[in-house]
Amino acid sequence: MSATLTSALWALGRGTGVVALVLFTSAIVLGILARSGRRVAGLGRFGISDLHRAAALTGAGLVVAHVGSLLFDPYAQLRLVDLALPFLASYRPLWLGLGTLTLDLLVVVTVVSLLRGRLGPRVFRVVHWATYVLWPIAVLHALGSGTDAGSTWFRTLAAVCVGSVIVAVGWRLVPSYGGRGWAREPRRSA
Q1: Residue 10: its pLDDT value, please?
Q2: Rounded average pLDDT over 50-70
Q3: SS3 96
Q4: Distance CA 129, CA 28 (A)
Q5: What is the CA 132 to chain-centroid distance, rounded?
Q6: d(CA 178, CA 174)
Q7: Which helix (H) or strand (E) holds 172?
Q8: Is the pLDDT of residue 180 over 80?
Q9: Per-residue pLDDT for 178 more than 60?
Q10: Which long-range contacts (CB under 8 A, 24 or more apart) does 175-183 make?
């Protein structure tokens, strides 16, 4: 394989991983906002839900490109087994294993999300909570195995991602949260 192609695969793998992290962070924050029922920037509840879904699905597509490009990159030394079974990689097994765990959880969450209508809201909700496990594992993977993990720009980006999610979760957990959101009509008994 030519050095130019190897370099391109490596750059594609790095870039898609970074952008996927940003999109998944956005999806988490938008998901929290969507569940709040509050209007944001004139989008309304359905607009936020659509952005949440688009960010999550685009992030999933970028993860496919991330993994695919690194699978064909001879420097990364990924094997097919490394995509399914965590902690077996020859290079940084812990950090790549966390990436594998993220990928495994992402597949489950994505499939269940796409089959939401057939599986029902209860299954969807339970599985969807796995994103609160998936996302921090992905951040750890990026910080441990990413080539740019030691750079100031990436650490700043990771801090902004983590800070955004912490603020969104904190906002959601404040005691006054119950008073926010869409006013709902009480059910009338017959």
Answers
A1: 86
A2: 94
A3: helix
A4: 11
A5: 9
A6: 9
A7: helix 152-173
A8: no
A9: no
A10: 177/36, 180/36, 180/37, 180/38, 181/36, 181/37, 181/38, 182/37, 182/38, 182/45
